[in-house]
Write a structure and sequence with these properties.
It contains eleven helices and 21 strands. The chain is α/β, with parallel strands linked by helices. The strands form four sheets. An eight-stranded mixed beta sheet has the order 7-6-15-16-17-14-18-21. It has a six-stranded mixed beta sheet with strand order 9-3-2-13-20-19, covered by helices on one side. The protein has a four-stranded mixed beta sheet with strand order 1-12-11-10, with no helix packed on it. Strand 11 and strand 12 form a beta hairpin. Helix 1 packs parallel to helix 6 and helix 1 runs parallel beside helix 8. The longest helix is centred in the last third of the chain and has 28 residues. It binds 8-demethyl-8-dimethylamino-flavin-adenine-dinucleotide and P-hydroxybenzoic acid.
Length: about 400
């Protein structure tokens, strides 16, 4: 067995683990990152696209914002479409100039992996049989296999950044943790297409046939989503059917439709709200999807991962500088305050914009009234806008 020693052991090289590694590196704190997938798999995984202003600022301050600032697309509003009408929510005007940036998670991860290699600090891809031990002691360990060798990394702390299906959260005794969960009776079928975006901003549409979302990745790539059943079989969705359905659900306003092009990626994503409390057990700290999941309608998952690791990096830096553990002790409560506000917002956006098979005719009319209110009251629009661009850091 090979023995390594580090200050912070990080399980998972998604946005949470990689950004934490970079924030710690900038403070001179050593870490070892252990990831079970290959580097290419992690980069190619198609997911988020919307970054809050605070996430962009954090990337820039961390020295990984160079390409983001050049290639990210700043959006100062979104459109909400329902009943054949389309309304713009003007973020910049409603939130004193704040905005979101469209920049694929693939690009975020690419930039962070590059920074990790530039730091010269260790990262293991394709690690197998990862496990964590002794998290209730002063020197917890991460064990894994890599290239036919068994490793043990002795750490001061472990950050569980291994996503919803990782091993860190399940390693915490169930009597130490409360789980809050809601599973939605629908899912998203998402595609990427080689087609120039035919609108400059995102369009969230509620149609009687279900929700649809128009988004983008670059001036040449459109990203689109359709509400579908949670157990939908993707083989029942040939390209023509997808375009036809998107045209119907997005085209109720003025005959507008997304540009069509070659579909080069397709996937189905379930919708879930999930929170594990507290986000800590002994010297193991959970961050990002390992601790919580939001339905993607509010575009909050990656942004929450970023705010968690920001809190954790600040707390670890204070510990290593002064020996004081107060901020580490407050990490979970501080992160959860933001997590729950994002949960509320994501649940609200999701409920307002999807046709639930469980909804009554009353519910459907209430949803339309909600959209009517949100697009006509400045107070309601401001509430949506300030949540979407990201609430202030507290
Ligand atoms: P990740 O990205 O899941 O990374 C976890 C990493 O841990 C690895 N891992 C392990 N490593 C070692 N040993 C083990 N046993 C391991 N088990 C797992 C995994 O391979 C992986 O590399 O979690 P992280 O870092 O917390 O990041 C969270 C975000 O990825 C997620 O919240 C977002 O993608 C959610 N999301 C969105 N968030 C936004 O902020 N804005 C958006 O616009 C947005 N759109 C979306 C989304 C998620 C989507 N899907 C597919 C779920 C759109 C979609 C369709
Ligand atoms: C995306 O572009 O992938 C995206 C945009 C907005 C969302 C979710 C995903 O709410």
């Amino acid at each position: 067995m090979k023995h390594l020693r580090t200050q912070v052991g990080i399980v998972g090289a998604g946005p949470a683990g990689l950004l934490l590694a970079q924030l710690l590196h900038l403070e001179g704190i050593d870490s070892v990152v252990v990831e079970n997938r290959s580097r290419q798999y992690v980069i190619d995984r198609v997911r988020a696209g919307v970054l809050e202003q605070g996430t962009v600022d954090l990337m820039v301050e961390s020295g990984v914002g160079h390409r983001l600032q050049k290639e990210g697309m700043r959006h100062e509003g979104i459109f909400l479409e329902f009943n054949g009408t389309r309304h713009r929510i003007d973020f910049a005007e409603l939130t004193e100039g704040r905005a979101i940036t469209v920049y694929g998670q693939n690009e975020v991860v690419t930039d962070l992996i590059e920074a990790r290699f530039a730091s010269g600090r260790p990262i293991f891809f394709e690690a197998e049989e990862t496990s964590v031990h002794g998290t209730d002691t002063h020197s917890p360990t991460i064990q894994f296999r890599h290239s036919d060798e068994t490793y043990e990394v002795r750490c001061d702390f472990i950050a569980g950044c291994d996503g919803f299906h990782g091993i860190c959260r399940p390693s915490i005794p169930s009597n130490e943790m409360s789980i809050y969960e809601r599973v939605y009776p629908f899912a998203w079928l998402g595609i990427l297409a080689h087609a120039a975006p035919s609108c400059d901003e995102l369009v969230y549409s509620l149609h009687e046939r279900g929700f649809a979302l128009f988004s983008m990745r670059s001036p040449a790539v459109t990203r689109l989503y359709l509400q579908c059943a949670p157990d939908e079989d993707i083989s029942h969705w040939p390209d023509d059917r997808i375009w036809n359905e998107l045209d119907i659900r997005l085209g109720s306003f003025d005959g507008w439709r997304p540009n069509h092009g070659e579909i080069f990626q397709k996937g189905i994503t379930g919708m879930r709200s999930f929170v594990a409390e507290p986000m800590r057990s002994g010297r193991l700290f959970l961050a990002g999807d390992a601790g919580h999941i939001v339905p993607p309608t509010g575009a909050k998952g990656l942004n929450l991962a970023a705010s968690d690791v920001r809190n954790l990096a600040i707390a670890l830096e204070a510990f290593y500088r002064t020996g004081n553990q107060d901020l580490l002790g407050g990490y979970s409560a501080r992160s959860l305050r933001r997590v729950w506000k994002a949960q509320r917002f994501s649940w609200w956006m999701t409920s307002m914009l999807h046709i639930s098979p469980e909804a009554s005719a009353f519910d459907q009319r209430r949803q339309i009234a909600e959209l009517d209110y949100v697009t006509s009251s400045r107070a309601a629009m401001t509430s949506l806008a300030e949540n979407y661009v990201g609430l202030p850091v507290d």
